[in-house]
Amino acid sequence: MLSIIIPTLNEENHLPFLLESIKKQGLNNYEIIVADAGSEDKTIEIAKSFGCKVVPGGFPPKGKNKGAKAAQNSLILFLDADIFLSDGSLEKLLKEFKERNLDVASFTLASFHRFHNLSYRIFYNFPSLITERFLPQAMNAILIKNNLHQKVGGFNEKIKVGEELDYIRRGVKFGKFGVLKSAKIFSSPRRFENDGWFTTWFKYFLCQLHMIFFGPVKSDILRYRFNHYSKNKKNLV
To answer: How far is residue 231's CA from residue 111's CA, in Å, rounded to a whole number?
Structure first.
C-alpha cells in the first residue's frame, strides 16, 4: 500500500526518532526506503536495524527519485529525516487522502519548539490553505500516488532548493491536490536555529518569488546546503 521514502546524509541523531514514530503508527502494509547520500555516521546501520531498504541517494531530488524507483507500493510518502509522526497521525492522514479522492498532497506542519510552531502557522500553514486551489505549497513531506509520480517524471534533479514546489505544481496538471489537515506532521527547527529564523524564512520567500517569476531555482543563488548542520561535515550543494 505505502512506500515511505527518506533521503538521508549523516542522520544518526534524527532518523531513529522518525523510524520509531513510523513503527508506532499501527500500519501493516508498508515499506521504508532510505536513500542515503554517503553517510559517514551510523545512519545506514540504524536504517537496516529498523528493517529499511537502503539505496544510494544524493542531493534531495536525486535521493527521492532513487527511493521512488525502488518503491513497490501504489502510494509514496516522501519524508525528510528530521520529521516526527505522532501516534495514529499517519492513519488519519491516509484516510483523509482517500476520502478527498486526492492524487497528491502536502501537509500542515508543526514543531515542538514554540516559536518554530508559531512561525509555521503564520508563514506556512495559513498561506498553504489559502493558496491550496491555485498555488500549491509543500515542505518536508509529500504524499503522492505512484502512478502520478511516474507521470510527472519525478523530481527535477537540477533544482537546488524548492524541488517540492516544482514537483507538486507539475503534479496538479495531472491529478487532484490538497493540503491534509486531519493531523500535523512535526518537523525539527535545526535549519532555522543554524541559519537564523529570519534568514531561513526569507530564503523560502525568495524561492517562492523565483518560482513564480523565473521558474525553479537551478543555480546556487540561495546557497542551500544538504545537512550542513551535521557534525560530519560532508555537505552536498
So the answer is: 23
Name the nearest CA neighbour of 6 among 109, 107, 80. Answer: 80
Q: Is residue 237 in some structural domain?
A: no
- Quick: pLDDT tens for 32-79: 999 999 999 999 999 999 999 999 999 999 999 999 999 999 999 999
Under 8 Å between Cβ of 65 and 164:
no
Tally of domains in the chain? 1
- What's the CATH code of the domain at 48? 3.90.550.10
Whether 117 maps to a domain, the answer reads yes
Q: Does residue 142 fall inside a structural domain?
A: yes
- Expressed as residue numbers, the domain containing 51 is 2-213
- pLDDT, tens only, 176-205: 999 999 998 999 999 999 999 999 999 999
Long-range contacts of 150-159 (CB under 8 A, 24+ apart): 151/175, 154/61, 154/64, 154/65, 154/68, 155/60, 155/61, 155/62, 155/64, 155/65, 156/61, 156/216, 157/58, 157/59, 157/61, 157/62, 157/65, 158/61, 158/216, 158/218, 159/61, 159/216, 159/217, 159/218
Q: What is the pTM of this model?
A: 0.93
